[in-house]
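Q: Could you fold this chain for me?
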Amino acid sequence: MLVLSKVQYRRALCVLIGFHVLVIAVSNYLVQLPIQVFGLYTTWGTFSFPFVYLATDLTVRIFGDHKARTIIFGAMLPALITSYVVSALFFEGTFQGFGKLALLNTFIFRIALASFIAYLLGQLVDIKIFSQLRKQTKWWIAPASSTICGNLLDTIVFYGIAFWASSDGFMATHWPEIAAVDYGFKLFVSMLLFLPLYGVLLRAISNQILAEPKLGVIS
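A: Sure. Below is the predicted structure, expressed as structure tokens.
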């Protein structure tokens, strides 16, 4: 864990909460847009959501597991509201007008609620596993293990709540396939790209976002 001044703490706190909210809101919008990859159904959200696990592991590394849970809880409600507003305004890729915010879109609300629950459970599992394994000699064990388990729980909970018996016939029919492809892609991207990126971003946060050359010891 890094030793931070009050200014550094507030700056890192704002950056990481903002990153969580941004990734969740973007992913909840993109999950409404299905695509095919090598003949398998998935959604554009598959390509963006893995970033939230990168943010979580960086949060645990910088603040420790206790404060990380506080940050996760702090990001939940803003992420839920932002997700619904963005998805309602730009439903199915088209700007709907601000009047749509006065009408409850149950399809979008269900996605936002599913994301809210899945995010909470998945991140708490991710934090628990990461904090237990962060002292391992090999630096990649903690982020790899937490990502595998957290993503699995998050994927099952999210797609089950959001699209089981959904009003959208396509998603109601294909959500198990989409969930399986989503999980597989998340693992592929996380193992090949996010583990190296994790180390790069951790160093960048230490040297640039926190703007101090001496921040203590990274554990």
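A (continued): The beta strands are 34-37, 40-43.
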